[in-house]
Amino acid sequence: MDMIAERGLGAMGPLMGAVMQRLGGSADGKAVSDALRRKIAELDD
């Protein structure tokens, strides 16, 4: 949460890497990216 508060959408890269690593690369990258972008936008409001 701190990273999102500090970086906003700039947190996408590190978070995307962490999520894809956690999921073992089995998820669709575009779907993960879209979901992260929406969630960050919600939290950044």
TrEMBL record:
| Keywords, ordered alphabetically | Transferase
- What does the record give under GO molecular function? carbon-nitrogen ligase activity, with glutamine as amido-N-donor; transferase activity
Domain of life here? Archaea
Q: What is this protein called?
A: Archaeal Glu-tRNAGln amidotransferase subunit E (Contains GAD domain)
Which source organism does the UniProt entry give?
Answer: uncultured marine group II/III euryarchaeote AD1000_48_C11
